[in-house]
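Input structure tokens:
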């Protein structure tokens, strides 16, 4: 018993000696040894700032950030034409003002270089009063293989000649966004593009077609849209598609939902300026089936069948644009 007590006394003395020696060589500091490593002190925060989360919280924020980055990276100069000095007697290009929707319903944006450039602008379409111009941009997102589109408006300088005011108006000069395709969901391989059909005769409205495509299957659906400058709102005239489906189901027992079919907006009706004319076709093998000519007013209140067989209608051509041609 005495031996154990003596051994405990010796161990205690040795441990006390070690503490005294260590205290001379190294003094314990709570802030330095514990707090700075395990607590968010002010000094620790200054040396180790918290990472900033710049990831967008919604898909709308994501596409908005990508569009801004694409627009900033792409320098789009004002229109100009250069002559190649190596060629002799090369005629200068001739620029003329022409009607835009000619032939009716045939104009589409050339998207051949979209994947390379990531952004494509359509031709500028000037209003009948020659004081405003609209155009669309298509943005490509390679990570999801999707495309979205946006509609822009530009006020033209009416103090200049018509050709000058159009030539000097380009995307670097005060465009205003009017509408953009919905891209809030992360759907892969979906492309949505906006193409201008034409201005209305009074310049108060703009007819647009929205094409929705799915990469593996091609064109999926075309929507008819009208932007009203008086209200500042866009109207999706989906009633025209519903009317076509109802007619063929009721009169011919044909369920268009079971087939691939689509509408082809042509332009504003010359005899009824408040209405837009569209043709409809169904994919039925080698030759598409004509589903008739239809019209609908810009408010979407009344869709009507013009003819189940006729394709000859008088379409007004109200917008104008610049066209470049070589002198022959």
């Amino acid at each position: 018993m005495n031996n154990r007590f003596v051994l405990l006394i010796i161990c205690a003395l040795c441990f006390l000696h070690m503490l005294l020696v260590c205290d001379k060589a190294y003094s314990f500091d709570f802030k330095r040894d514990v707090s700075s490593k395990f607590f968010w002190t002010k000094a620790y925060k200054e040396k180790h700032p918290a990472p900033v989360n710049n990831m967008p919280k919604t898909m709308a924020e994501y596409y908005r950030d990508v569009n801004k980055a694409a627009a900033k990276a792409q320098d789009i100069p004002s229109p100009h034409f250069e002559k190649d000095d190596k060629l002799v007697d090369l005629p200068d290009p001739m620029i003329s003002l022409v009607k835009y929707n000619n032939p009716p319903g045939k104009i589409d944006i050339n998207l051949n270089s979209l994947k390379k450039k990531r952004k494509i602008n359509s031709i500028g379409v000037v209003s009948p009063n020659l004081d405003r111009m609209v155009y669309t941009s298509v943005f490509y997102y390679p990570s999801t293989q999707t495309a979205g589109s946006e509609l822009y408006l530009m006020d033209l300088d009416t103090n200049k000649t018509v050709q000058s005011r159009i030539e000097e108006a380009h995307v670097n000069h005060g465009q205003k966004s009017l509408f953009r395709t919905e891209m809030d969901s992360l759907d892969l391989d979906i492309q949505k593009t906006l193409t201008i059909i034409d201005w209305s005769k009074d310049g108060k409205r703009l007819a647009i077609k929205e094409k929705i495509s799915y990469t593996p299957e091609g064109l999926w659906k075309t929507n008819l849209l009208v932007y009203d400058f008086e209200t500042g709102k866009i109207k999706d005239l989906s009633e025209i598609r519903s009317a076509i489906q109802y007619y063929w189901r009721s009169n011919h027992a044909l369920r268009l939902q079971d087939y691939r079919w689509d509408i082809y907006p042509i332009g504003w009706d010359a005899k009824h300026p408040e209405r837009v004319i569209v043709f409809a076709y169904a994919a039925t093998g080698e030759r598409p089936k004509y589903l008739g000519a239809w019209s609908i007013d810009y408010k979407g209140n009344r869709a009507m069948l013009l003819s189940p067989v006729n394709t000859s209608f008088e379409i007004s051509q109200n917008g104008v644009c610049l066209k470049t041609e070589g002198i022959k």
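The CA atoms of residues 110 and 122 lie 8 Å apart. The first strand starts at residue 93 and ends at 99.
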